[in-house]
Amino acid sequence: MVWETPYFSYAVRELPKGCQLCVRGEKLVLFTTGKCPRDCFYCPLSETRRGDVVYANERPVKSLDDIIEEALLMEARGAGVTGGDPLARLDRTVEYIRLLKEAFGESFHVHLYTTGALATKKNLEKLYDAGLDEIRFHPDLFNPNSRLFKVEIENIRNAFDFDWDVGGEIPSIPGQFERMRRYADFLDNLGAKFLNVNELEFSETNLRAILDRGYRPISDESAAIKGSLELGLRLLEWGEENTSLSYHLCTAKLKDAVQLKNRLRRMARNVAKPYMEITEDGTLRFGIAEYDDLDELYTLLVEEAEVPAEWLYLNREKGRIEMPEEVAVELAEAIEGDVRFFIVEEYPTFDRLEVERIPLP
What we know:
alpha/beta; TIM Barrel; 2 domains; six-stranded antiparallel beta sheet; 11 helices; elongated
């Protein structure tokens, strides 16, 4: 039976362990490289991640300590290792998996995504020895006659020589039901545990390629592609009757409304300063004041406006003074001149993405 999860997604049987942690916001997203042996038209990677770069969630990784710090801030119980293809920088990826296992213990669950192109027996053995718990293969189903596809399919067989969870992860691309079905059959016959299906979405980098192939978004407000969800449900219904695999249809709504929100909430608890309010969405809400001379403004607020210094934080990097929202509202009414007051909302992430800014009169 296809069942609807509490996370706006759909499943057959049980969710893979990696997905269970992910939807609760408990997984660190460890991006080990943007390099990949393939060039899929639907690849959503941003331009900043298409090179040989490393990120832990939104944090650029300059040292091993960056990975550990990010995991601690979000109270991670596991990690999803992704790219690009993490096997394109195998030694680095292996080092990171071993680092996480040593720092947080064997129960810290790590899953990894790969095309399969580089999944030789020797490379898989290194991942297994490092402590990888779950591996997900994404072969190029949409170029089944290519040499690379044949290599990927043969390499996937290698994964069943190790005692870990093996599954697949593919996008739901309208018009490709037969290829998706054949891949599900292939995995089932090998003894895989699951097949994850992702609702197709557009991004800034893949939009032109998606539109050129005739696909369209479901609405002006959504990045999801028309027909993708319906096709995914059709595959789950077929798979429930014809295979023993577990399936998870991961929707665009799950990523935004559940996974990200839950991760932000976990981080906000550890990141929020005393003057910040944590919203229902996991963002940080507080007041700010901007002025050409921050030191002069700080003196004005403390000495003339008599604002307690512990209510103020001078953020030189962003060129502002931060404070509780109610203090900013009161000061905006009392102080005349060129001082500008705002209420802002930011993600509690490393990049502190600003999602709202309300000017105060």
